[in-house]
């Protein structure tokens, strides 16, 4: 399980960057979680040269990284400025 989370942490920023590029192409925000999940799974599958994990474990890591990329985006999008005074 640790190896899956390590791989997800490594490919997470790459997934977030690719999702950001897709987002700038003008695609609707409703589809971004599905697109991020797909990109993450694709990157996880493509990581076979960097790890000795099985395909299923790499796909899990990619899915986790894709969903984490969407969660990070949503977390920063909904931050409200604090009112002092």
Give an account of the 3D structure.
This protein is an all-alpha fold and 85 residues long. It contains 3 helices and no strands. Helix 1 crosses helix 3 (55-77) and helix 2 packs antiparallel against helix 3.
Helix content: over 70%
Tally of strands: 0
Mean pLDDT: 83
- Report the sheet-strand fraction: under 5%
**Describe the biggest sheet?**
none
* Helix-strand pattern: HHH
What's the helix and strand layout?
Elements: H1 2-24, H2 32-46, H3 55-77
Helix pairs in contact: 1-2, 1-3, 2-3
InterPro entries: Phage_A118_holin/antiholin
Protein name: Holin
Transmembrane segments: 32-50
Features:
85 residues, mainly alpha, 0% strand, globular
Short description:
The chain is mostly helical. Helices cover 72% and strands 0% of the residues.
């Amino acid at each position: 399980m640790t190896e899956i989370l390590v791989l997800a942490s490594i490919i997470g920023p790459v997934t977030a960057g690719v999702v950001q590029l897709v987002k700038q192409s003008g695609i609707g925000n409703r589809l971004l979680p599905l697109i991020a999940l797909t990109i993450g799974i694709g990157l996880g599958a493509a990581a076979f040269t960097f790890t000795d994990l099985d395909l299923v474990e790499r796909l899990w890591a990619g899915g986790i990284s894709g969903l984490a990329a969407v969660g990070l985006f949503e977390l920063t999008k909904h931050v409200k400025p604090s009112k002092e005074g």
